[in-house]
Design goal:
Layout (H helix, E strand, L loop, with lengths): L1 H18 L3 H83 L1
Organism: Aliarcobacter cibarius
Protein name: Lipoprotein
């Protein structure tokens, strides 16, 4: 009888030990790994968003600078046109003065 009881106790102990599942520990470990990876991915996504924002801001600054350059170029073209017109007027006036001087000599 003692052997049967002892055998039963040993069997129960073995059965309990064998059915004790260690997978929850692995799941916890995997969950921790997934959480760590998720955190890293979120951090990387945040960095990408910040970089994209910086690129957008830089693009806006470049567009503004381009607009300013175009405006300055337009002003230079207008000034060049005015200088050409003034030069033409001076040439015409010089020609008139020469012609008048030539007529006065006669």
């Amino acid at each position: 009888m003692k052997k049967i009881l002892f055998s039963s106790v040993v069997a129960i102990a073995i059965f309990t030990g064998c059915t004790e599942d260690k997978k929850p520990t692995e799941v916890k470990t995997e969950a921790a790994k997934v959480e760590a990876v998720t955190t890293k991915v979120k951090e990387a996504a945040t960095e990408v968003k910040e970089a994209a924002t910086e690129v957008k801001e830089a693009t806006t600054e470049v567009k503004e600078a381009t607009t300013e350059v175009k405006e300055a170029t337009t002003e230079v073209k207008e000034a060049t046109t005015e200088v050409k017109e003034a030069t033409t007027e001076v040439k015409e006036a010089t020609t008139e003065v020469k012609e008048a001087a030539t007529e006065n000599k006669k």
